[in-house]
Design brief:
This protein is α+β, with helices and mostly antiparallel strands. It contains 23 helices and 18 strands. The chain has a five-stranded mixed sheet with strand order 14-13-10-15-16, with helices on both faces. The protein has a four-stranded mixed sheet with strand order 7-6-9-8. Strand 17 and strand 18 form a beta hairpin. Helix 21 packs antiparallel against helix 22. The protein is globular and about 100 Å long. The termini are far apart. The relative contact order is 0.08. It comes from Circinella minor. Pfam families: KDZ (PF18758). This is CxC2-like cysteine cluster KDZ transposase-associated domain-containing protein.
């Protein structure tokens, strides 16, 4: 920088500032300026002397970065060392007094230190209703009575592991925790700024609050994860998907990858070597190292339209993790996840996830697999020795992706035309990725440990959301299956086919089987005019499907001007692509005719909703005749769905019954004789189970109301139309009330519920359920 002049005469000085590469001011050098007079009487100043080399400043910057990395590593190790003590103090504080959201003073410390010499420190305490200063007494000698532990015992979570100046009440930090994982708000930019705006008018918040909160909230998440693990193992509580756990039929496992949840590479990330207590609970959803399957072969079989498993390009060297691969059950409950490190999805990811799913006691080999590229999966299962037990499992492709597969793949992998799949769409992962989309930007620059913690906790919240809404979702599916069954029976009756007419239904099945054989016989991968015509038909079908997708998005109201203009341009480009493919199609059809396909004059003819080409490319339409195969498949899938829903609803009620009984046993667990600290710790655990028991009872009562008709399979189910005015009775086959339902009803009749079906309030007031 140019020198700045101050003063006159001999006291004149120039100042030099050294700046780092990041623009941070490092130091200031001042030296006296000696004025000289030339022979003409003009004053001159000697030019500044460069007394430092650029390499010296590089050393300063390097040393500063090393110091910061060492401080971050020391901070992480300090948190890891006191995390078990914080959890113990949290349970003791809950045993002394139930945390109250309206608190404005710390709770009393009922376990004071016996040492004579005590220290005191003023700590800024942030509550839900205000911010206060309090003098906290602690002991530097006793590990159980250091300042962070004393604060935690008094229901204040410290923001630093050593000598904290700021602490947050457990109810407030819990609200921030929920805000982060439910509302998908960033800790660094959103939650900390909200806290500063909320409390700064009462007492000034230190400038370091944002950084300290970014470090403390992940530690709170780790502490709560360890608490959940301890309670689950101590009282053997139910876990997993309620609809799958006690289900007798085969369970669906959906798989998919997400390349948006990537993470940048970080040099010299020392904090990843820190071992946090309870890290196995954070890794509960992730593939263990012993279950990783190395499979390097390419995918040559199946449909050639999808190349996700063969993707090799792309510069991903700046990414340490390119995405996340995961599996869920058909109800959206997350089962297993795995970090991806390659540009595309390889067979190793899905094989590793399936290997871990097979080892789960409630899934095993009784599964069905739904994968976007499921047509290529069978050979890899046969070649993997550890997965030979599931090499013959049913495989399907989600309905959002199946339309872009070839007709042969659609006939063998479409869940709507193959038995056993019911009415599920197979796109369960897409919903989960949509829920996790709020964490994409905030996890991209995190450390590897914090990223895994954030995604694992987000998966836990998503799983709990699926459990809370399981009854509502099953009831919605039941109503949909009844409506589809009614419409299918109406369509079949129009052509003179009744549900009990087995001969005519079998004729429909035979015609469909012949349709499959004819379609597969017409498809060849060899050379010649016939193969070229089939490739032209498939290319035109894909182009029309892309046009339909863009056209539907274009017709949605509320797109806005910019989006509408963009979609209009994309729609025109897709239409031009259809015109090019149609020109090639007409040339190939003239050279090698294919039965059922003819030439078309213009684009409008082939794009018409009732065009002959669209009719022929619908796999449920027969090449000859007009038999209602669509209604036939709809009736089959609806009947399958009703049977599956009955099995799932029974599983949910059994799960609720078992969970309530386990929590009742935990609450009745005798306390003592223990030492006073152990007494408060055990009492805090029991009080936590009592709160869970109230929530579980309300959830159980709600599921009973929603699912009793599904389990009972009554002979007439009232279906309310969407407008709320019309109601129709739809026949549903009756099997009577199951023994499981009768047993659950008896238990529910004996229970006395203390709260209504609203179970949102997890932490009530100071009422003692014991």
């Amino acid at each position: 920088m140019p020198p700045k002049y101050h003063g006159f005469g001999d006291r004149r000085k120039d100042t030099f500032k050294s700046m780092s590469a990041a623009g941070i001011r490092r130091s200031t050098y001042v030296r006296a300026v000696i004025l000289t007079v030339d022979q003409d009487g003009n004053h001159t100043i000697n030019p500044p002397v460069n007394r430092t080399e650029s390499s010296e400043w590089e050393d300063v910057v390097k040393a500063s970065k090393t110091k910061k990395r060492n401080e971050a590593e020391d901070q992480a190790r300090s948190w890891a060392s006191i995390l078990p003590l914080l959890l113990e103090a949290f349970k003791q504080g809950c045993g002394v007094e139930t945390p109250s959201p309206s608190a404005l003073v710390p709770s009393e410390d009922s376990l004071p230190c016996s040492c004579r010499e005590k220290d005191f420190k003023f700590v800024r305490c942030i509550f839900k209703c205000g911010i206060r200063h309090f003098q906290i007494q602690f002991c530097k000698k006793c590990p159980q009575h250091k300042l962070p532990i004393v604060l935690m015992r008094r229901q204040l979570f410290p923001l630093t592991p050593k000598n904290p100046n700021v602490a947050i009440h457990v109810e407030q930090v819990r609200s921030m925790h929920l805000m982060h994982y439910i509302c998908h708000t960033s800790i660094h930019h959103a939650i900390s700024e909200w806290a500063r705006a909320e409390y700064h008018y009462q007492l000034p918040i230190p400038a370091s609050f944002k950084q300290r909160l970014s470090e403390a909230l992940p530690m709170y998440a780790r502490m709560m994860a360890n608490l959940e693990k301890e309670q689950r193992e101590a009282f053997k509580l139910e876990s997993g998907c309620p609809a799958c756990k006690y289900m007798h039929g085969s369970k669906t496992v959906a798989a998919d990858g997400n390349f948006q949840l990537s993470r940048y590479s970080r040099t010299n990330e020392r904090s990843k070597d820190v071992v946090y207590p309870g890290q196995d609970e954070v890794n509960r959803y992730w593939v263990t190292p012993e279950n990783v399957v190395l499979y390097n072969e390419t995918a040559n079989e199946g449909c050639s339209n999808f190349q996700a498993l063969n993707k090799k390009g792309g510069n991903k060297r700046h990414l340490e993790q390119t995405g996340v691969f995961a599996c869920t059950c058909k109800h959206g409950y997350p089962l297993v996840a795995m970090d991806m490190t390659t540009p595309g999805e390889t067979f190793g990811y899905i094989l590793s996830c399936l290997k871990q799913v097979v080892q789960m006691p409630h899934y095993g080999t009784n599964i069905k697999v739904c994968y976007d590229v499921g047509c290529k999966l069978r050979t890899s299962l046969e070649k993997t020795e550890s997965l030979a037990c599931i090499k013959n499992v049913p495989i399907a492709v989600g309905i959002f992706h199946i339309l872009n597969h070839s007709p042969a793949c659609q006939l063998s992998c479409h869940p709507r035309v193959n038995a056993g799949w019911g009415l599920q769409d197979g796109e369960h992962l897409e919903r989960m990725w949509s829920n996790l989309s709020g964490f994409i930007s905030m996890t991209r620059s995190m450390s590897s440990l914090n990223r895994r913690l954030t995604i694992s906790t987000a998966l836990e919240f998503y799983a709990q959301q699926k459990i809370d809404n399981i009854g509502i979702n099953l009831k919605r599916k039941f109503r949909r299956a009844c409506l589809l069954r009614r419409d299918a029976l109406k369509a079949l009756r129009k052509v003179g086919i009744e549900e009990d007419d087995e001969e005519k239904l079998q004729n429909l099945q035979n015609m469909w089987d012949q349709q499959i054989r004819n379609t597969l016989a017409s498809i060849t991968n060899g050379s010649g005019r016939f193969a070229a015509s089939n490739r032209a038909i498939e290319n035109l079908r894909v182009a029309i499907a892309i046009f339909d997708l863009i056209d539907n998005a274009f017709r949605v109201q509320g797109n806005g001007h910019n989006r509408t203009q963009s979609l209009a341009a994309q729609r025109q480009a897709a239409r031009d692509q259809v015109a090019r493919k149609l020109k090639i199609y007409n040339e190939k059809i003239r050279a090698g005719p294919v039965f059922g396909f003819e030439e078309y004059d213009d684009v409008n003819t082939v794009l018409h909703k009732q065009s002959r080409f669209r009719f022929r490319m619908n796999i449920v339409n027969l090449m000859t005749g007009d038999q209602p195969c669509d209604a036939f498949h709809g009736l089959q899938r609806a009947n399958e769905e009703l049977a599956i829903l009955k099995d799932e609803a029974t599983s949910v009620l059994k799960y609720a019954d078992a969970l309530v009984e386990q929590l009742k046993t935990a609450v009745k667990n005798p306390i003592g004789p223990y030492s006073l600290p152990k007494y408060y710790e055990q009492k805090g655990m029991v009080l936590e189970q009592a709160r869970k028991l109230r929530r579980a009872r309300a959830w159980k009562k709600e599921q009973m109301k929603l699912l009793v008709k599904i389990v009972d399979s009554i002979t007439a189910q009232t279906i309310e139309e969407e407008n709320g005015d019309e109601e129709e009775d739809v026949a549903v086959e009756a099997d009577g009330v199951t023994d499981e339902l009768s047993r659950v009803e008896e238990v529910l009749d004996d229970e006395q519920f203390e709260i209504d079906t609203e179970f949102v309030d997890t932490f009530p007031g100071n009422d003692d359920p014991l």
